[in-house]
Amino acid sequence: MFALLFLCSCCATVLINSQGTGATVVTLFEDINYGGSTFGVTVNADCVSAPVVAGFNDRTTSIQLPSTNDCVTLWEDRDCQGDSFNVIGSQAFADSMNDRTSSVSPCNYVGPSKQSVKP
Ligand SMILES: [Ca+2]
């Protein structure tokens, strides 16, 4: 378990996508104002539940995106289900999704779970 946590914290911002396909590399932070442990996740067109797998489930408090125009959706549950919160650019505090994020998608993600999004 220690080895896994160590791996997560030191390799957090490695760029996974090497094909230049327009992927957004999202950096999740455990604390407010981009502090504490980090976890990097590459978002393409689909839902990504990597935070759950990597032990970063329900830990995200702030988020950094590469560009102020980038937009990702944080989801309460894995597989992009439950409550959601859109982040445009970077967000020093995840507001309603603080310590709740379990998966991430692009803002224009249209999956089977989209119909269950609460207003
Ligand atoms: Ca959650």
UniProtKB/TrEMBL annotation:
Residues 98-119 are annotated as: Disordered. InterPro entries: G_crystallin-like (IPR011024). Keywords: Signal. It comes from the Eukaryota. Residues 1-23 form the signal peptide. This is Beta/gamma crystallin 'Greek key' domain-containing protein. The lineage of its organism: Eukaryota, Metazoa, Ecdysozoa, Tardigrada, Eutardigrada.
